[in-house]
Write a structure and sequence with these properties.
Elements (H helix, E strand, L loop, with lengths): L13 H12 L5 H19 L14 H13 L4 H21 L25 H16 L5 H17 L3 H5 L6 E2 L4 E5 L5 E5 L2 H17 L21 H14 L8 H14 L4 H8 L4 H4 L1 H17 L4
Antiparallel strand pairs: 1-2, 2-3
Length: 317
């Protein structure tokens, strides 16, 4: 089956197509990641040859002046510093790939540096806010506002996300064969198609057992090993967009900020573990971070909380 990303207009360019195939086959990049690369390369082609230009493109015509103009156009268009850095990394990576076929080819983006980006601390929910949010699906069911199967599904999903720190794609991608409810563990597939073991806390385990029991009572076929754990009302695997939509609904009902996303549960998981004394290496392993430096940002969150506590309570702060 041809990946959908290869059907985009920019992917009809022979060089871009080979780059995409390399990303998918050699780097195990997700289609979402590849789509991002394609958008950035398409922006480059529009900057150099105009919006109406069509593939194939003469990528060797792009020099340092065109590369500088591309970054300048991004800045003029209002792209954030972090977005400009990401796009620069994408087109630089594309040209590195082209150099594999032609060692004499120059990478016009090689010496360019993106704008500095101030480190932003991840926003998290407090444990009490997390509890209010996680209880909302069952509260809706009790009040007759939600069907049992939907309430149990959403309760188990968000409990599992907070309990494991998984990315939303990792959790909704899990099948029943991945969940060992007798041991309280689950195998999830993360970035780069890497599998890792995550631990289910008692609340998440209880919620998943209730979900499985209810699904089995409707039809044993729902809980076969190769079936997704979290399904939509139509019986299909739940989508990330649907999860985001229902999360906003529960946040509103619990009077919590609407800008909280499923990924913020992951931030909260890591921060709460470190606040409670968990070691950084363990948290890195649970989050599936390749680099410890990625995990270290959560230590800054904990330090900032300590500073706030001292400022509020210490007589000489």
């Amino acid at each position: 089956m041809t990946p959908r990303v290869l059907e985009t207009p920019i992917a009809s360019d022979p060089s871009v197509r080979r780059f995409v195939e390399n990303l998918l086959a050699e780097r195990n990049a997700s289609e979402n990641t590849v789509s991002g690369y394609l958008r950035d390369i398409a922006q480059l082609s529009a900057s150099v040859w105009g919006e109406s230009a069509e593939p194939p493109f003469r990528w060797d015509e792009v020099g340092e002046s065109e590369a500088h103009a591309f970054l300048l156009n991004l800045a003029k268009s209002g792209a954030s510093p972090s977005s400009r850095r990401r796009k620069l990394a994408a087109v630089r990576s594309f040209y590195r790939f082209l150099q594999m076929d032609d060692e004499e080819r120059r990478n016009p983006f090689q010496s360019l540096r993106g704008p500095r980006v101030a480190a932003k601390l991840p926003r998290t929910l407090s444990p009490s806010d997390i509890a209010r949010f996680l209880e909302q699906p069952l509260a809706d069911m009790k009040d007759g506002l939600l069907k049992k199967e939907t309430a149990l599904r959403d309760h188990a999903l968000f409990e599992a996300l907070y309990s494991t720190g998984c990315r939303i794609s990792e959790m909704i991608g899990a099948d029943w064969s991945d969940a060992d409810l007798s041991r309280g563990a689950m195998i999830v597939t993360g970035k780069g198609s890497k599998d890792r073991l995550v631990i289910l806390g008692s609340r998440a385990l209880e919620a998943l057992k209730a979900l499985k029991e209810n699904m089995a009572s409707c039809s044993e076929s729902y809980v076969l090993p190769d079936k997704p754990i979290f399904i939509s009302a139509r019986g299909k695997r739940l989508s990330a967009r649907e999860v985001q939509r229902v999360m906003k609904k529960y946040l509103a009902e619990a009077s919590l900020p609407q800008d909280i996303t499923p990924h913020k549960l992951r931030h909260s998981f890591a921060t709460h573990l470190l606040d409670a004394g968990a070691d950084l290496r363990s948290v890195q392993e649970m989050l599936g971070h390749a680099s410890l430096s990625t995990t270290q940002i959560y230590t800054h969150v904990s330090v900032e909380r300590l500073k706030d506590a001292v400022a509020a309570a210490h007589p000489r702060s």
